[in-house]
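We give the entry.
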Amino acid sequence: MRTFLRSFFSAPLIAAILSGCTQEKHPANVYPIQEGFVDAHGMLMYYTSLGAGKPLVIVHGGPGASHDYFLPYLLPLARSRRIVFIDERGSGKSEKLADPAGYTVEAMVEDVESVRAALQLGRIDLLGHSYGGVLAQAYALKYQENLEHLILCSTFHSTKEMNGVFRQILGKMKPELRSRIQKMESAGLYGHGREFEKNRYTDDYMIAAWGEGYFPYLYQNHPDPNYSPTSAGNMSWDLYRAMWGSNGEYVIDGNLASVEYAGKLGTIRVPTLITAGDNDECSPALAREMNALIPGSQLVVLPRSGHMTFVDQPAMFIKAVNDFLQ
């Protein structure tokens, strides 16, 4: 076809014809999904995007979850932005590593940068939730020149301080629950239970830690009726052990122990929004400290909200993000 066109038409007209052959036209109220994989230095990274306009890249928590838990709650952002969800290395549909030592914040920063460059997104807005907020901070500290806005949601900047929050959560538990959790942790959390449980937490521990223990800090105003602590265990366990650690939910002692950004956040100069729930697993006290450390940053604490602020207060969350970006 190209040879035929060159015989009869000018180069600009050829480009227009080819573009018309490959691009579908959609009504303004239709939001087609684009998805694919980016080869990030030998690591195949899955992305999916929809909407048009300035790119808003979104990175998820866990670590080891996937972008799916954002849906459908963040979809309204596509009305004014091209939203790009990434499954981090080892998570969701992205490639997994044979050696878990490669699961680090620093490596994931390079993955995000590879996706940005490969998709030719230019300067991006970047939103990170929970662990994704840690990743977003690390990206900003290295690639600030590629950012327009930074949004840090229900996250932490210091593992030492986050571990202090976990100690507070443990201290507020009913003694029976705390004793049950600590007994399972003392016995070791891996290699126990039924055969299908031995490479992850047992169902009993997930129900105690993620269900009875965490649930009040996950949801407040609008608890997800489909939430199941055992379903939350559908994630990358090799990654989780490498990054979070092997000793339970109430201490981070994997390679995330290196996350201590307090002395660096003052170098972030891009407009930054920090959000948290008023009963967040990542305490709003951490959000206030980050707000004090990042010059000119804005802080929104959502009422009657846990860690999943966009589920508890979806309209407030979307408005806060849109107002900030616009």
About this structure: Residues 31-326 form a domain with the Rossmann fold fold (CATH 3.40.50.1820). The chain has two domains: 1-30, 31-326. The radius of gyration is 21 Å. Confidence is low (pLDDT under 50) at residues 1-23.
